[in-house]
Amino acid sequence: MRRPFRSIANNEAEEEEGIDVTPMLDVVFIMLIFFIVTASFVKESGIDVNRPEASTAQPKDRANILVGIDPDGDVWINRRNVELNSVRANIERLHAENPQGSVVIQADEEAATRYLVAVMDAAREAGVYNVSIAAQEP
């Protein structure tokens, strides 16, 4: 026995009452991937330092290589404690990854000046002449 046309139309209408959200989920997932890939992540030297105050301090946007010097004279790059004689090699490697980047030295106010000068020399020997020293605004 055949069903009347009207009952078939009612069954199809009952099945299509819900909204199909699958395409919307696909778009949201693709947007999430896009934002994760294009996001710029904050880089840190690996230690917290008490930076000295300077009235002429200016924010630096394009600091790609951060070097930290703690009060004991330990040098930190990318959350790793590195020896003073290997700072040049690390800066060369990081500068090769991003040639437009600059070096920012985050020296603690209690750190000896000789470590600061040694890191600056290593950066310049590595071919990076855009070297800055981090300071706080008063």
Summarize it.
With 138 residues, the chain is an alpha/beta fold.
What does this structure look like?
The chain has 138 residues and is an alpha/beta fold. The protein folds into 2 domains: 5-38; 63-133, Nucleotidyltransferase, domain 5, CATH 3.30.420. It has helices at 5-15, 22-38, 87-97, 113-125, and strands spanning 63-69, 75-77, 80-82, 102-107, 131-133. The protein has a 5-stranded mixed beta sheet with strand order 3-2-1-4-5, with helices on one face. The chain is elongated and about 75 Å long.
How many β-strands, per DSSP?
Answer: 5
* % residues in beta strands: 15-25%
* Average pLDDT over all residues: 79
Oligomer: single chain
Taking all Cα atoms into account, the compactness measure Rg is 28 Å
Q: Report low-confidence residues grouped into runs of 5 or more.
A: none
The largest beta-sheet arranges its strands as 3-2-1-4-5
CATH topology of the largest domain: Nucleotidyltransferase, domain 5
How does CATH name the architecture of the largest domain?
Answer: 2-Layer Sandwich
Please report the first level of CATH classification, the CATH class of the largest domain: Alpha Beta
Number of domains: 2
Shape: elongated
Secondary structure tally, helices? 4
Order of helices and strands: HHEEEHEHE
Q: Give the biggest beta sheet.
A: 5 strands, mixed
For the termini, the CA-CA separation is: 90 Å
Organism: Tamilnaduibacter salinus
GO molecular function: transmembrane transporter activity
Subcellular location: Cell membrane
InterPro entries: ExbD
